[in-house]
UniProtKB/TrEMBL annotation:
Signal peptide annotation: 1-21
Keywords annotated in UniProt: Signal
Upper lineage: Bacteria, Pseudomonadati, Bacteroidota, Flavobacteriia, Flavobacteriales
InterPro entries listed in its UniProt record: Secre_tail
Name of this protein: Secretion system C-terminal sorting domain-containing protein
Domain annotation Secretion system C-terminal sorting: ranges: 167-232
NCBIfam families: Por_Secre_tail
Amino acid sequence: MKILYTISAILLFTTWSLSQSSVEINGADDNINYASDTAYVVGDGDGVGFIFKKFYVVNTGNTTNFFYSRSILSKSNSSLQIQLCDETQCFSTGNDPYWIIDDSFEKTIQPGDSLEIKPQMTFGMSDGNAKIKYYVLDGNKNKIDSVTVFFTSTLSTLKQEKLAFNIFPNPAQDVVTLKGEAFKKGGEIVFLDALGKEVKRTKIMNANNQINISSLKKGVYFVNILHKDGEKSAVQRLIKQ
């Protein structure tokens, strides 16, 4: 009987060992292991309107299926938009205090491999800060590691006024009008998708620019102005219906 108990205990231990979930969250630009630590991201978005930090989730265990979640620890104003992107798509995580990725987006990382994740904050014309804690969960949605990201946007008031513009209607279906101080310097209007990829570009015609967006897919876009002198405007968020 003792032998049977011993064999059972060994089998249970072996099964647990073979299915152990373990990851490291490393900074993509500094190679620091941020396990349960804080990364600070400060900037004006370089005219793109969002700031971000790239990490690699490295699978150091034996399982392959993972989920993401996040908690809002603090946020200075509701206009700040929080997203979590990976190598293929972005997830708008909204304003709920706690958010978890949908089951249909379960991520697979083979042992020894890694997956890039990019927490980001979109701030448009608003200064502010947000402290967000991001978690990696195992296949049973148990938290196994985390990193806290403290975002701070630094767009000055003077720069906001000089580079401001409005988009209406918003949300929009076929045509939008862009109007504001930013168009006085001339240049081009640039549309980026949620992953930061340019999807449309058009020249500024006058102070009131009507642009046909019917060719764009439904979703969230970021619009900015690239001036002739190389300066970029602040970014406005556009929802295409």
